[in-house]
């Protein structure tokens, strides 16, 4: 997909734009172990803390609100997943899975815990460490091998996480290319899942 999209972009949006690659090697110096350790620890720590404040905390608030705010006898999480379900079924998924991808945009690693939380009607995110229990939960909620493959395909090809989008915006200084980085993989993921689901459920 990367090679295909590169070819398509080079023939359309990037047609005629020359590209060059220059690699300038810095002067070699003997590494200072103390400075390397201090900088790496502080850089990584500050990055994780900043991500937690800017991205993870708001996402946690939204997830908590969706799982705990009730309209009638249903949570907002259930209402939104039911709304997305018809379109998600075209992709070989269900509304819960698609909503989990949407809510998990700030950090992709929370997608599966959100799915588990939704299937178990829980009010908080948690993980299942027992694979047999996880398998039974997914199968009981309609998963088959096509669902699993479509989830993997959409995991590989969908919008980048929020941190990546912010980085793209910072590096390119362009809303157009930031939007393209969001839209292109998402559209590819949607059509590939729809095509895969159609072939193996309708054609075959």
Q: How is this structure best described in words?
A:
With 204 residues, the chain is mostly helical. Strand 1 and strand 2 form a beta hairpin. The mean pLDDT is 86. It has a two-stranded antiparallel ribbon with strand order 1-2. It has one domain. 69% of the residues lie in helices and 2% in strands. The relative contact order is 0.09. The radius of gyration is 21 Å and the shape is globular.
Query: Uncertain runs with pLDDT below 50, 5 residues or more?
Result: none
- Average pLDDT taken over every residue: 86
Count the E strands.
2
Please give the share of residues in helix.
55-70%
Distance between the termini: 24 Å
What's the gyration radius in Å?
A: 21 Å
Largest sheet: 2 strands, antiparallel
How many H/I helical runs?
A: 9
Beta percentage is under 5%
Walk across the major sheet and give the strand order: 1-2
What pattern of helices and strands is seen along the backbone? Answer: HHEEHHHHHHH
Counted up, domains total 1
Summed up, what is this model?
The protein is mostly helical. It is built from 9 helices and 2 strands, in the order ααββααααααα. The protein has one domain (48-203).
Keywords:
two-stranded antiparallel sheet, 204 residues, globular, single chain, mainly alpha
Topology:
Blueprint: H1 2-11, H2 33-68, E1 70-71, E2 74-75, H3 76-90, H4 95-103, H5 111-119, H6 131-140, H7 145-156, H8 162-172, H9 175-203
């Amino acid at each position: 997909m990367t090679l295909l999209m590169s070819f398509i972009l080079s023939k359309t949006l990037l047609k005629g734009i020359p590209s060059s690659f220059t690699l300038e090697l810095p002067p070699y110096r003997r590494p200072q172990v103390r400075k390397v350790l201090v900088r790496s620890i502080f850089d990584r720590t500050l990055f994780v803390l900043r991500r937690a404040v800017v991205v993870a905390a708001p996402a946690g608030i939204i997830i908590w609100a969706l799982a705990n705010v009730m309209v009638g006898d249903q949570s907002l999480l259930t209402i939104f997943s039911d709304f997305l379900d018809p379109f998600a079924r075209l992709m070989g998924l269900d509304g819960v899975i698609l909503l989990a991808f949407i809510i998990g945009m700030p950090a992709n690693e929370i997608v599966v815990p959100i799915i588990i939380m939704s299937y178990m009607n829980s009010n908080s995110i948690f993980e299942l460490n027992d694979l047999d229990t996880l398998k039974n939960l997914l199968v009981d909620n309609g998963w088959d091998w096509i669902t699993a493959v479509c989830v993997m395909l959409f995991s590989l090809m969908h919008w980048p996480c929020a941190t990546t989008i912010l980085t793209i915006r910072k590096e390119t200084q362009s809303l157009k290319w930031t939007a393209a980085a969001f839209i292109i993989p998402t559209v590819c993921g949607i059509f590939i899942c729809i095509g895969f689901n159609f072939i193996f459920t309708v054609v075959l």
